[in-house]
Design a protein that fits this description.
Keywords: Membrane, Transmembrane, Transmembrane helix. 48% of the residues lie in helices and 0% in strands. With 58 residues, it is mostly helical.
Length: 58
């Protein structure tokens, strides 16, 4: 046996994990914002202009 102490493996870097999660969140937010601002999803059904809204019906 050697008398040298065993070295512990390096601990995972919490700051790196937080940075990766923040980057993913920022990318998802930016993609969602771009999708909405550039037109996004359009429903194929269009109501006539003189149709009462759901709020008016009660």
């Amino acid at each position: 046996m050697t008398t040298e102490p065993r070295t512990r493996p390096p601990a995972r870097d919490r700051d790196r994990r937080a940075t990766v999660l923040a980057t993913l969140f920022l990318a998802a937010s930016a993609a969602t914002l771009a999708y909405v601002l550039l037109g996004g999803h359009h429903d194929a059904v269009e109501l006539p202009a003189d149709a009462p809204s759901n709020a008016a019906r009660g």
